[in-house]
Amino acid sequence: MLARDLFRNQPDRIRAMLDARRTDAPLDRLLEVDTAWREVLVQVEELKARRNAGSKEIGALYRDGRAEEAEARKGEMTAVGDEIKGLEERAKELERELEDLELTIPNLFNAGVPIGEDESDNRVERSWGEPRSFDFEPRAHWDLGPELGIADFERAAKVASSRFVVLRGAGAALERALISYMLDLHTRVHGYTEVLPPYLVNSASLLGTGQLPKFADDLFHIEDFDLYLVPTAEVPLTNLHRDETLAEEELPVRYCAYTPCFRAEAGSYGKDVRGLIRQHQFHKVELVELVHPEQSWERLEALTGHAEAVLQGLDLPYRVVSLCSGDLGFSAAKTYDLEVWLPALGCYREISSCTNFTDFQARRAHLRYRPAGGGKARLLHTINGSGLAAGRTMVAVLENYQEEDGSVVVPEVLRPYMHGLELIEPAR
Protein backbone atom coordinates (compact mmCIF):
# COMPACT_ATOMS: atom_id res chain seq x y z
CA MET A 1 0.00 0.00 0.00
CA LEU A 2 1.27 3.45 -0.87
CA ALA A 3 1.48 6.36 1.55
CA ARG A 4 -1.69 8.44 1.47
CA ASP A 5 0.36 11.63 1.05
CA LEU A 6 1.48 10.35 -2.37
CA PHE A 7 -2.08 10.27 -3.66
CA ARG A 8 -2.72 13.77 -2.39
CA ASN A 9 0.55 15.44 -3.36
CA GLN A 10 1.80 13.45 -6.38
CA PRO A 11 -1.24 12.09 -8.24
CA ASP A 12 0.44 12.59 -11.62
CA ARG A 13 3.35 10.41 -10.52
CA ILE A 14 0.95 7.61 -9.58
CA ARG A 15 -1.03 8.08 -12.79
CA ALA A 16 2.19 7.70 -14.82
CA MET A 17 3.05 4.55 -12.85
CA LEU A 18 -0.37 3.04 -13.56
CA ASP A 19 0.01 3.82 -17.24
CA ALA A 20 3.45 2.17 -17.36
CA ARG A 21 2.07 -0.88 -15.56
CA ARG A 22 -0.78 -1.10 -18.07
CA THR A 23 -3.39 -1.14 -15.33
CA ASP A 24 -6.66 0.73 -14.92
CA ALA A 25 -6.70 0.93 -11.11
CA PRO A 26 -9.36 3.44 -9.94
CA LEU A 27 -7.10 6.36 -9.00
CA ASP A 28 -9.63 9.04 -9.99
CA ARG A 29 -12.32 7.52 -7.80
CA LEU A 30 -9.83 7.26 -4.94
CA LEU A 31 -8.99 10.97 -5.23
CA GLU A 32 -12.70 11.86 -5.31
CA VAL A 33 -13.45 9.81 -2.20
CA ASP A 34 -10.43 11.18 -0.35
CA THR A 35 -11.48 14.76 -1.11
CA ALA A 36 -15.08 14.09 -0.06
CA TRP A 37 -13.93 12.35 3.15
CA ARG A 38 -11.71 15.26 4.17
CA GLU A 39 -14.46 17.77 3.40
CA VAL A 40 -16.90 15.87 5.61
CA LEU A 41 -14.32 15.77 8.43
CA VAL A 42 -13.95 19.56 8.19
CA GLN A 43 -17.75 19.95 8.37
CA VAL A 44 -17.86 17.70 11.44
CA GLU A 45 -15.18 19.73 13.20
CA GLU A 46 -16.94 23.00 12.36
CA LEU A 47 -20.24 21.69 13.70
CA LYS A 48 -18.59 20.37 16.86
CA ALA A 49 -17.06 23.81 17.44
CA ARG A 50 -20.49 25.35 16.90
CA ARG A 51 -22.05 22.87 19.35
CA ASN A 52 -19.40 23.56 21.98
CA ALA A 53 -19.93 27.31 21.65
CA GLY A 54 -23.69 26.77 21.83
CA SER A 55 -23.36 24.70 25.01
CA LYS A 56 -21.43 27.51 26.67
CA GLU A 57 -24.04 30.02 25.52
CA ILE A 58 -26.86 27.87 26.90
CA GLY A 59 -25.13 27.70 30.29
CA ALA A 60 -24.77 31.46 30.32
CA LEU A 61 -28.44 31.94 29.44
CA TYR A 62 -29.53 29.71 32.31
CA ARG A 63 -27.29 31.60 34.71
CA ASP A 64 -28.84 34.88 33.55
CA GLY A 65 -32.35 33.52 34.17
CA ARG A 66 -33.20 33.39 30.47
CA ALA A 67 -34.45 29.79 30.55
CA GLU A 68 -36.82 30.16 27.57
CA GLU A 69 -34.01 31.30 25.31
CA ALA A 70 -31.78 28.54 26.69
CA GLU A 71 -34.35 25.87 25.83
CA ALA A 72 -34.67 27.22 22.31
CA ARG A 73 -30.89 27.07 21.89
CA LYS A 74 -30.88 23.49 23.27
CA GLY A 75 -33.25 22.49 20.47
CA GLU A 76 -30.92 24.04 17.93
CA MET A 77 -27.92 22.19 19.41
CA THR A 78 -29.83 18.90 19.36
CA ALA A 79 -30.34 19.39 15.63
CA VAL A 80 -26.64 20.17 15.27
CA GLY A 81 -25.82 16.95 17.16
CA ASP A 82 -28.02 14.95 14.82
CA GLU A 83 -26.29 16.52 11.84
CA ILE A 84 -22.89 15.66 13.33
CA LYS A 85 -23.97 12.05 13.83
CA GLY A 86 -25.11 11.76 10.23
CA LEU A 87 -21.90 13.28 8.91
CA GLU A 88 -19.77 11.00 11.11
CA GLU A 89 -21.55 7.98 9.62
CA ARG A 90 -20.91 9.37 6.16
CA ALA A 91 -17.24 9.91 7.04
CA LYS A 92 -16.93 6.28 8.14
CA GLU A 93 -18.49 5.07 4.88
CA LEU A 94 -16.12 7.23 2.83
CA GLU A 95 -13.11 6.13 4.88
CA ARG A 96 -13.99 2.46 4.36
CA GLU A 97 -14.30 3.02 0.62
CA LEU A 98 -11.02 4.96 0.60
CA GLU A 99 -9.21 2.13 2.38
CA ASP A 100 -10.64 -0.42 -0.06
CA LEU A 101 -9.57 1.70 -3.03
CA GLU A 102 -6.06 2.15 -1.63
CA LEU A 103 -5.67 -1.64 -1.68
CA THR A 104 -6.24 -1.68 -5.46
CA ILE A 105 -3.30 0.61 -6.29
CA PRO A 106 -0.02 -1.23 -7.08
CA ASN A 107 3.41 -0.28 -5.84
CA LEU A 108 5.61 2.39 -7.40
CA PHE A 109 8.41 0.73 -9.30
CA ASN A 110 12.13 1.44 -9.18
CA ALA A 111 13.65 3.81 -11.74
CA GLY A 112 15.78 0.96 -13.09
CA VAL A 113 12.78 -1.12 -14.15
CA PRO A 114 12.49 -1.25 -17.97
CA ILE A 115 9.29 0.26 -19.37
CA GLY A 116 7.34 -2.20 -21.47
CA GLU A 117 4.05 -3.89 -22.30
CA ASP A 118 4.59 -7.53 -21.30
CA GLU A 119 7.20 -10.29 -20.87
CA SER A 120 8.53 -9.69 -24.37
CA ASP A 121 9.92 -6.38 -23.09
CA ASN A 122 11.76 -7.90 -20.12
CA ARG A 123 15.52 -7.28 -20.08
CA VAL A 124 18.11 -10.05 -19.82
CA GLU A 125 20.74 -8.98 -17.27
CA ARG A 126 23.10 -11.95 -17.42
CA SER A 127 23.33 -15.63 -18.27
CA TRP A 128 25.13 -18.52 -16.61
CA GLY A 129 26.13 -21.88 -18.11
CA GLU A 130 25.86 -23.23 -21.62
CA PRO A 131 22.84 -25.25 -22.72
CA ARG A 132 23.81 -28.88 -23.29
CA SER A 133 24.20 -30.09 -26.87
CA PHE A 134 22.33 -33.39 -27.31
CA ASP A 135 23.15 -36.18 -29.80
CA PHE A 136 19.46 -37.10 -29.74
CA GLU A 137 16.12 -35.32 -29.59
CA PRO A 138 15.63 -34.37 -25.92
CA ARG A 139 12.32 -35.49 -24.50
CA ALA A 140 9.87 -33.46 -22.41
CA HIS A 141 9.58 -34.18 -18.70
CA TRP A 142 5.93 -35.16 -19.06
CA ASP A 143 7.10 -38.11 -21.15
CA LEU A 144 10.27 -38.87 -19.18
CA GLY A 145 8.54 -38.96 -15.78
CA PRO A 146 5.86 -41.56 -16.60
CA GLU A 147 8.30 -43.74 -18.57
CA LEU A 148 10.73 -43.72 -15.66
CA GLY A 149 7.85 -44.70 -13.41
CA ILE A 150 8.41 -41.70 -11.14
CA ALA A 151 5.54 -39.37 -12.13
CA ASP A 152 1.89 -40.34 -12.54
CA PHE A 153 -0.44 -37.65 -13.85
CA GLU A 154 -3.40 -39.93 -14.62
CA ARG A 155 -3.80 -41.33 -11.10
CA ALA A 156 -3.32 -37.85 -9.64
CA ALA A 157 -6.25 -36.66 -11.78
CA LYS A 158 -8.27 -39.64 -10.52
CA VAL A 159 -7.77 -38.82 -6.84
CA ALA A 160 -7.80 -35.02 -7.26
CA SER A 161 -8.09 -33.33 -10.68
CA SER A 162 -5.91 -32.23 -13.55
CA ARG A 163 -2.80 -30.21 -12.66
CA PHE A 164 -1.75 -32.56 -9.89
CA VAL A 165 0.91 -35.25 -9.91
CA VAL A 166 1.78 -38.35 -7.91
CA LEU A 167 5.54 -38.79 -7.49
CA ARG A 168 6.78 -42.22 -6.51
CA GLY A 169 10.03 -44.01 -5.88
CA ALA A 170 13.01 -42.09 -7.20
CA GLY A 171 10.70 -39.24 -8.22
CA ALA A 172 9.51 -38.64 -4.67
CA ALA A 173 13.08 -39.03 -3.44
CA LEU A 174 14.36 -36.57 -6.05
CA GLU A 175 11.91 -33.86 -5.01
CA ARG A 176 12.72 -34.43 -1.34
CA ALA A 177 16.44 -34.30 -2.17
CA LEU A 178 16.02 -30.99 -4.01
CA ILE A 179 14.18 -29.45 -1.05
CA SER A 180 16.77 -30.71 1.46
CA TYR A 181 19.65 -29.47 -0.69
CA MET A 182 18.08 -26.03 -1.00
CA LEU A 183 17.34 -25.73 2.72
CA ASP A 184 20.84 -26.86 3.67
CA LEU A 185 22.44 -24.40 1.26
CA HIS A 186 20.36 -21.45 2.46
CA THR A 187 20.72 -22.18 6.18
CA ARG A 188 24.30 -23.47 6.38
CA VAL A 189 25.92 -21.33 3.69
CA HIS A 190 23.71 -18.27 3.19
CA GLY A 191 22.74 -17.78 6.82
CA TYR A 192 18.94 -17.92 6.74
CA THR A 193 16.93 -19.21 9.70
CA GLU A 194 14.74 -22.15 8.73
CA VAL A 195 11.05 -21.90 9.63
CA LEU A 196 8.27 -24.46 9.32
CA PRO A 197 5.17 -22.23 9.17
CA PRO A 198 1.45 -23.09 9.05
CA TYR A 199 0.15 -24.19 5.66
CA LEU A 200 -3.08 -22.26 6.28
CA VAL A 201 -3.13 -18.48 6.62
CA ASN A 202 -5.81 -15.95 7.52
CA SER A 203 -7.09 -13.08 5.40
CA ALA A 204 -5.09 -10.49 7.38
CA SER A 205 -1.87 -12.26 6.35
CA LEU A 206 -2.89 -12.34 2.68
CA LEU A 207 -3.89 -8.68 2.87
CA GLY A 208 -0.50 -7.84 4.36
CA THR A 209 1.49 -9.32 1.49
CA GLY A 210 -0.87 -8.16 -1.26
CA GLN A 211 -2.60 -11.36 -2.38
CA LEU A 212 -5.91 -9.98 -1.12
CA PRO A 213 -8.05 -8.48 -2.36
CA LYS A 214 -6.65 -8.46 -5.91
CA PHE A 215 -5.83 -12.16 -6.30
CA ALA A 216 -8.70 -13.73 -4.35
CA ASP A 217 -9.70 -15.90 -7.33
CA ASP A 218 -6.29 -17.58 -7.34
CA LEU A 219 -6.56 -18.73 -3.72
CA PHE A 220 -8.12 -21.85 -2.22
CA HIS A 221 -10.44 -20.73 0.59
CA ILE A 222 -11.50 -23.03 3.46
CA GLU A 223 -15.29 -22.80 3.67
CA ASP A 224 -16.69 -21.45 6.97
CA PHE A 225 -13.22 -20.40 8.18
CA ASP A 226 -11.11 -17.29 7.76
CA LEU A 227 -8.35 -19.52 6.40
CA TYR A 228 -6.75 -20.10 3.01
CA LEU A 229 -4.31 -22.70 1.73
CA VAL A 230 -0.94 -20.99 1.56
CA PRO A 231 -0.08 -19.83 -2.01
CA THR A 232 3.59 -19.36 -1.06
CA ALA A 233 5.63 -19.32 2.16
CA GLU A 234 6.14 -15.60 1.53
CA VAL A 235 2.78 -15.04 3.21
CA PRO A 236 3.37 -16.66 6.62
CA LEU A 237 7.05 -15.68 6.76
CA THR A 238 6.43 -11.97 6.05
CA ASN A 239 3.53 -11.91 8.52
CA LEU A 240 5.41 -13.50 11.41
CA HIS A 241 6.20 -9.97 12.60
CA ARG A 242 2.96 -8.29 11.46
CA ASP A 243 1.95 -5.45 13.81
CA GLU A 244 5.38 -5.54 15.47
CA THR A 245 8.15 -2.98 15.87
CA LEU A 246 11.61 -4.56 15.73
CA ALA A 247 14.81 -3.06 17.08
CA GLU A 248 17.15 -1.80 14.37
CA GLU A 249 19.84 -4.06 15.82
CA GLU A 250 17.74 -7.11 14.89
CA LEU A 251 17.85 -6.30 11.18
CA PRO A 252 17.99 -7.90 8.74
CA VAL A 253 15.59 -10.69 9.71
CA ARG A 254 16.20 -13.54 7.24
CA TYR A 255 13.97 -16.59 6.97
CA CYS A 256 13.68 -19.54 4.64
CA ALA A 257 10.94 -22.15 4.56
CA TYR A 258 9.77 -25.14 2.61
CA THR A 259 6.00 -25.42 2.13
CA PRO A 260 3.54 -26.91 -0.27
CA CYS A 261 1.91 -24.10 -2.27
CA PHE A 262 -1.67 -24.12 -3.52
CA ARG A 263 -2.90 -21.99 -6.40
CA ALA A 264 -6.11 -22.09 -8.39
CA GLU A 265 -4.27 -20.73 -11.47
CA ALA A 266 -7.45 -18.82 -12.24
CA GLY A 267 -5.76 -16.58 -14.79
CA SER A 268 -3.69 -19.18 -16.63
CA TYR A 269 -6.32 -19.84 -19.33
CA GLY A 270 -5.03 -23.26 -20.40
CA LYS A 271 -1.35 -22.28 -20.21
CA ASP A 272 1.13 -25.09 -19.39
CA VAL A 273 -1.61 -27.69 -18.95
CA ARG A 274 0.90 -30.56 -19.38
CA GLY A 275 3.48 -31.62 -16.87
CA LEU A 276 4.81 -29.95 -13.74
CA ILE A 277 5.22 -26.33 -14.81
CA ARG A 278 1.87 -24.99 -13.57
CA GLN A 279 0.27 -27.15 -10.89
CA HIS A 280 -2.48 -26.53 -8.33
CA GLN A 281 -0.15 -27.97 -5.67
CA PHE A 282 3.62 -27.73 -5.73
CA HIS A 283 6.54 -27.46 -3.33
CA LYS A 284 8.79 -24.46 -2.95
CA VAL A 285 11.62 -23.18 -0.78
CA GLU A 286 11.09 -19.48 -0.10
CA LEU A 287 13.50 -16.78 1.08
CA VAL A 288 12.16 -13.72 2.95
CA GLU A 289 14.04 -10.79 4.44
CA LEU A 290 12.84 -7.87 6.56
CA VAL A 291 15.49 -5.19 6.12
CA HIS A 292 16.51 -1.61 6.81
CA PRO A 293 15.26 0.66 3.99
CA GLU A 294 18.77 1.84 3.20
CA GLN A 295 19.91 -1.75 2.62
CA SER A 296 17.01 -3.18 0.63
CA TRP A 297 18.49 -2.84 -2.86
CA GLU A 298 21.77 -4.37 -1.72
CA ARG A 299 19.84 -7.20 -0.04
CA LEU A 300 17.81 -7.84 -3.22
CA GLU A 301 21.03 -8.45 -5.15
CA ALA A 302 22.32 -10.76 -2.42
CA LEU A 303 19.08 -12.74 -2.19
CA THR A 304 18.99 -13.14 -5.98
CA GLY A 305 22.52 -14.50 -5.80
CA HIS A 306 21.42 -17.03 -3.17
CA ALA A 307 18.70 -18.34 -5.50
CA GLU A 308 21.21 -18.45 -8.36
CA ALA A 309 23.58 -20.53 -6.21
CA VAL A 310 21.04 -23.38 -6.21
CA LEU A 311 21.06 -23.50 -10.01
CA GLN A 312 24.83 -23.21 -10.15
CA GLY A 313 25.20 -26.09 -7.68
CA LEU A 314 22.95 -28.21 -9.90
CA ASP A 315 24.88 -27.06 -12.99
CA LEU A 316 21.69 -25.91 -14.72
CA PRO A 317 22.00 -23.14 -17.34
CA TYR A 318 19.91 -20.08 -16.53
CA ARG A 319 19.55 -16.36 -17.10
CA VAL A 320 18.55 -13.42 -14.91
CA VAL A 321 15.83 -11.16 -16.29
CA SER A 322 14.55 -7.77 -15.08
CA LEU A 323 10.78 -7.64 -15.39
CA CYS A 324 9.43 -4.66 -17.29
CA SER A 325 6.74 -2.35 -15.91
CA GLY A 326 3.92 -4.15 -17.71
CA ASP A 327 4.99 -7.58 -16.38
CA LEU A 328 5.80 -6.51 -12.83
CA GLY A 329 3.83 -7.99 -9.94
CA PHE A 330 1.25 -5.89 -8.10
CA SER A 331 3.32 -5.36 -4.93
CA ALA A 332 6.76 -5.31 -6.56
CA ALA A 333 9.09 -2.33 -6.86
CA LYS A 334 11.60 -4.43 -8.82
CA THR A 335 11.80 -8.11 -9.74
CA TYR A 336 14.47 -10.37 -11.14
CA ASP A 337 13.21 -13.60 -12.66
CA LEU A 338 15.58 -16.54 -12.84
CA GLU A 339 14.81 -18.54 -15.96
CA VAL A 340 16.23 -22.05 -16.34
CA TRP A 341 16.97 -23.69 -19.70
CA LEU A 342 14.55 -26.49 -20.68
CA PRO A 343 15.93 -28.51 -23.63
CA ALA A 344 12.66 -30.09 -24.74
CA LEU A 345 10.95 -26.73 -25.02
CA GLY A 346 14.09 -25.09 -26.39
CA CYS A 347 13.66 -22.02 -24.20
CA TYR A 348 14.20 -20.53 -20.76
CA ARG A 349 11.35 -20.74 -18.24
CA GLU A 350 10.89 -18.97 -14.92
CA ILE A 351 12.00 -20.92 -11.86
CA SER A 352 12.29 -18.09 -9.32
CA SER A 353 11.18 -14.49 -8.82
CA CYS A 354 13.25 -12.29 -6.49
CA THR A 355 11.55 -9.04 -5.50
CA ASN A 356 12.02 -5.88 -3.48
CA PHE A 357 8.63 -4.62 -2.27
CA THR A 358 10.15 -1.54 -0.55
CA ASP A 359 7.67 -0.45 2.18
CA PHE A 360 4.54 -1.52 0.25
CA GLN A 361 3.91 -4.74 2.19
CA ALA A 362 5.24 -3.25 5.42
CA ARG A 363 2.63 -0.49 5.34
CA ARG A 364 -0.17 -3.05 4.86
CA ALA A 365 1.20 -5.41 7.52
CA HIS A 366 2.40 -2.69 9.94
CA LEU A 367 6.00 -3.91 9.94
CA ARG A 368 8.26 -1.34 11.59
CA TYR A 369 11.63 -0.93 13.26
CA ARG A 370 12.82 1.43 15.97
CA PRO A 371 16.00 3.37 14.98
CA ALA A 372 18.99 2.58 17.19
CA GLY A 373 19.41 6.27 18.03
CA GLY A 374 15.80 6.59 19.13
CA GLY A 375 12.97 8.43 17.46
CA LYS A 376 9.78 7.48 15.70
CA ALA A 377 9.30 3.91 14.44
CA ARG A 378 9.77 3.54 10.68
CA LEU A 379 8.52 1.12 8.06
CA LEU A 380 10.72 -1.81 7.11
CA HIS A 381 11.39 -2.97 3.56
CA THR A 382 10.51 -6.55 2.60
CA ILE A 383 12.29 -8.78 0.07
CA ASN A 384 11.52 -12.30 -1.03
CA GLY A 385 12.42 -14.87 -3.65
CA SER A 386 11.95 -18.52 -4.51
CA GLY A 387 15.00 -20.50 -3.64
CA LEU A 388 13.67 -22.50 -5.62
CA ALA A 389 10.36 -23.94 -6.85
CA ALA A 390 11.05 -27.67 -6.38
CA GLY A 391 8.73 -28.95 -9.11
CA ARG A 392 10.18 -26.71 -11.78
CA THR A 393 13.69 -27.58 -10.61
CA MET A 394 12.80 -31.25 -11.03
CA VAL A 395 11.64 -30.48 -14.58
CA ALA A 396 15.01 -28.86 -15.32
CA VAL A 397 16.95 -31.78 -13.84
CA LEU A 398 14.98 -34.41 -15.77
CA GLU A 399 15.31 -32.60 -19.09
CA ASN A 400 18.91 -31.42 -18.78
CA TYR A 401 20.30 -34.66 -17.31
CA GLN A 402 18.45 -37.13 -19.55
CA GLU A 403 20.25 -39.82 -21.56
CA GLU A 404 19.34 -41.30 -24.92
CA ASP A 405 18.00 -44.52 -23.34
CA GLY A 406 15.52 -42.51 -21.24
CA SER A 407 17.51 -42.66 -18.01
CA VAL A 408 18.35 -39.53 -16.00
CA VAL A 409 21.67 -38.85 -14.29
CA VAL A 410 21.31 -37.61 -10.70
CA PRO A 411 23.27 -34.34 -10.19
CA GLU A 412 26.24 -34.87 -7.91
CA VAL A 413 25.07 -32.49 -5.18
CA LEU A 414 21.84 -34.48 -4.80
CA ARG A 415 23.36 -37.96 -4.53
CA PRO A 416 24.06 -37.77 -0.77
CA TYR A 417 20.36 -37.02 -0.27
CA MET A 418 19.39 -40.03 -2.42
CA HIS A 419 21.57 -42.63 -0.69
CA GLY A 420 24.20 -42.46 -3.42
CA LEU A 421 21.83 -43.07 -6.36
CA GLU A 422 23.57 -41.93 -9.54
CA LEU A 423 21.11 -42.90 -12.26
CA ILE A 424 17.32 -43.05 -12.48
CA GLU A 425 16.55 -45.75 -15.00
CA PRO A 426 13.34 -46.48 -16.98
CA ALA A 427 10.79 -48.72 -15.31
CA ARG A 428 11.06 -52.35 -16.42
End-to-end gap? 56 Å
The tally of helices reads 12
Strand content: 15-25%
- Largest beta-sheet details: 8 strands, mixed
Helix-strand string: HHHHEHEHEHEEHEEHEEEHEEEHEEEHEE
Write down the overall mean pLDDT. 95
Q: What is the SS-derived class?
A: alpha+beta
Strand order, main sheet: write it out: 1-11-12-13-16-10-9-4
Q: How would you sum up the global shape?
A: elongated
Number of strands: 18
The helix fraction, in percent, is 40-55%
- Rg estimate, integer Å: 28 Å
Q: Outline the low-pLDDT stretches.
A: none
Task: Please explain how this structure is put together.
- This protein is an alpha+beta fold and 428 residues long.
- Helices cover 40% and strands 21% of the residues.
- It contains twelve helices and 18 strands.
- It has an eight-stranded mixed beta sheet with strand order 1-11-12-13-16-10-9-4. A three-stranded antiparallel beta sheet has the order 5-7-6.
- The longest helix has 37 residues, at 27-63.
- It is elongated and about 110 Å long.
- The chain starts with a helix and ends with a strand.
Compact summary:
This protein is α+β, with helices and mostly antiparallel strands and 428 residues long. Helices cover 40% and strands 21% of the residues. The longest helix is centred in the N-terminal third of the chain and has 37 residues, at 27-63.
Note the topology.
Blueprint: H1 4-9, H2 11-21, H3 27-63, H4 67-102, E1 123-128, H5 141-148, E2 151-152, H6 153-159, E3 166-167, H7 170-189, E4 193-195, E5 200-201, H8 203-209, E6 221-222, E7 227-229, H9 234-239, E8 244-247, E9 253-262, E10 281-291, H10 296-313, E11 318-322, E12 334-342, E13 347-356, H11 360-365, E14 367-370, E15 378-379, E16 381-389, H12 390-400, E17 408-409, E18 423-424
Parallel strand pairs: 4-9, 8-14
Antiparallel strand pairs: 1-11, 2-3, 5-7, 6-7, 9-10, 10-16, 11-12, 12-13, 13-16, 14-15, 17-18
Helix pairs in contact: 3-4, 7-12
